[in-house]
Amino acid sequence: MQRRRAVRWFQRRVVNPFSRTMIRAGLAPGQAILETTGRRSGKPRPVPVGNGLDAEGRTFWLVTEFGRSAQYVRNIEADPHVRVLARRRWRTGVATILSGDDARARQRSLGKLNAAVVRAVGTELLTVRIDLDR
Fold first, then answer.
1. Largest Cα–Cα distance in the chain?
2. Best label site of 28, 54, 95, 101, fewest CB within 10 Å?
3. Measuring CA to CA, how many Å separate 49 from each of 2, 13, 16?
4. Mind listing the domains of the chain with CATH numbers?
5. Of 110, 2, 128, whose CA–CA distance to 62 is shortest?
6. What pLDDT digit, counting tens, does each position of 44-99 carry?
C-alpha cells in the first residue's frame, strides 16, 4: 500500500504533467494519452499511458499497473467511452476491461519501455482493450 501511494504521488505530481506535455508536442512516440470522463466530476481526465495502438489502428491496448484501483479504470467502469491521443491524432473508442487476459503476456507483446516500467512498479496488472471508432 505504501509503495502504491508513493508511486501514485510521483506519477501524478512529476511524471504525468511532463509526459502529457511531451506527448502533445509529438516528442514521446512510445506514449499516448488516455482520456476518460471523471466518474464524479464528469470532466475529461487525461493520463499518459504506453502507446498500445495496433498496426491497423483499430485497437488500442494498455496494461494498468494497479488494476481496478487505478482511477482511470474506475472511470472506464462508470463510462467506457474514451479518447486516445496516439501518434499526434485523437481517436474515440469504447474500452473493455479484460480480467481474464494474461496481462504479463500482453505487456511482452507491447514490448515498449513503458511496459517495462509498468511491470517493475505494478502490483496488480490488468489489461484494457479499446476498440477504436473508424
1. 42
2. 54
3. 22, 15, 9
4. 2-132 (2.30.110.10)
5. 128
6. 999 999 889 998 999 999 998 888 989 999 999 999 999 999 989 999 999 999 99
